[in-house]
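Please check this record.
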Amino acid sequence: MTPTLVRRHHHLHHVSPPHPDVRARARDWAEIQERMLVPLYEAVYERLEVDSGTRALGLGCGSGLALLMAAARGAYVTGTEADPQRLELARERLVPDAPDRGAQAARAQLLGRTPRDVADPGRPAFNLVTAFDPHSYADGGLVSALAEAAEVSERSTPVVLAGWGPAERCATSSVLRVASRLADPVRARTPMPRGWRPCGRDDLEELAHEAGLRPDGSGRVACPFGYADMDSAVRGLLSTGLFDAAVAATDRSQVEKELTEALHPHRRRDGTVWMPNVFRYLIALV
């Protein structure tokens, strides 16, 4: 079922910002959207046997859920995140600031914006690097971040890169097309990040080669996107930032309307929204 096209008008007045409240947006990410990739985190940690001997660096760690899961396995974790609101939420989750935060929180190190921010010569080098959310590097900075991460990691450290699986295996791909279609007037300046498009066969491998990494295995994981209701689905997807260019090109109300229409085929009788997806990950070596 194809969403109904809505005629766009170019407004001369000021358009609404991508999100009226950046704190609310970060909370929507932390409370609604971030958990959608839990199966991916679990599959990677199980395959790489993450435990108390792991010293993990999470690039684009969001609000820290993946790192929290690694810490629960005993790993010492460190994260970088460019979004200051998400970074603050990650610090609340991971960095102990009270005696009752528990031993798990004590396994978190400094959180910052880049690998150089969190490198600590007094600690052992990292032996696991993850980049689960390529959208955190929409400005094309992921390759340089991976190069920095390699500098502070042991030789032959596994680096995990992740992205969407084939479009035909990802129900959400039809919804994301709303973002690219509405953003068309500004796509030349703000293209959809490649890591959040359905991956081509060798996209992750090409990214690894650009960063000077050696591919060493891959896998696919089912990551369904499930929401309690339509409002949660819209808020969760908007929190990703993938619709920001569309909001700038039109306005927030139109994006919400067309996003709701695109989600309608995925709404079940009980009001929940469910979209099966497959994500792919690549393991490369420093």
